[in-house]
Design brief:
Helix content is about 20%, strand content about 45%. The protein is of the alpha+beta class. The strands form three sheets. Strands 3-2-6-9-10-5-4 form a seven-stranded antiparallel β-sheet. A three-stranded antiparallel β-sheet has the order 1-11-12, with no helix packed on it. Strand 9 and strand 10 form a beta hairpin. It starts with a helix and ends in an 8-residue tail after the last strand.
């Protein structure tokens, strides 16, 4: 019993530390049999410049992970600061996340309209990490806009601002 309390305490402390790390908010998407799938992720990062690669972490039980494993392709929609409602919509479980959401087919992947950035990726590896699977992808398309990015910090949405004198 004491070991479980130690683990639970560490998990709570870890959750607190991670809530104080500012992360970009993205929606990872794919299409299976003409139907779009997507989920909000904050565990997303660049991995390599040569070749351009990224990684995203998906819950091992997620429907999106199963879809990406099937298609071996995914899009990363880096949300703009005005898209917090979209982030919340795609953070929910279940179907119907795309109902009423503006998106286009880009590289045979769902690209959400009015985002900060867009990456189309080919999945090259799946690495288990605890209760998540890290999907490693080679970037085939990369586009950005002038819109400010949506970030997540201390359990709330915000955006990035450059400090005075550092721009």
């Amino acid at each position: 019993m004491a070991q479980n309390q130690v683990i639970e305490g560490l998990q709570q402390s870890f959750r607190e530390v991670m809530s104080n790390v500012c992360t970009p908010v993205s929606v990872v998407t794919t299409i299976v049999d003409g139907r779009p799938h997507g989920t909000t992720v904050s565990a997303f990062a660049s991995l390599s410049m040569s070749p351009p690669m990224v990684l995203v972490a998906l819950d091992e039980r997620s429907d999106l992970l199963a879809a990406v494993q099937e298609t071996r392709r995914f899009g990363v929609n880096i949300l703009a600061s005005e898209q917090s409602e979209l982030a919340s919509t795609f953070a929910t479980k279940g179907q119907g996340k795309f109902d009423g959401v503006a998106w286009t087919d880009n590289e045979a992947l769902p690209r959400l309209d009015d985002g900060h950035g867009w990456l189309a990726c080919e999945a090259v590896d799946f690495v288990t990490g605890g209760d998540h699977v890290v999907v490693i992808g080679t970037v085939t398309v990369a586009e950005t806009t002038e819109l400010s990015p949506l970030t997540y910090y201390q359990r709330g949405f915000g955006t990035h601002a450059v400090l005075e004198g550092l721009a």
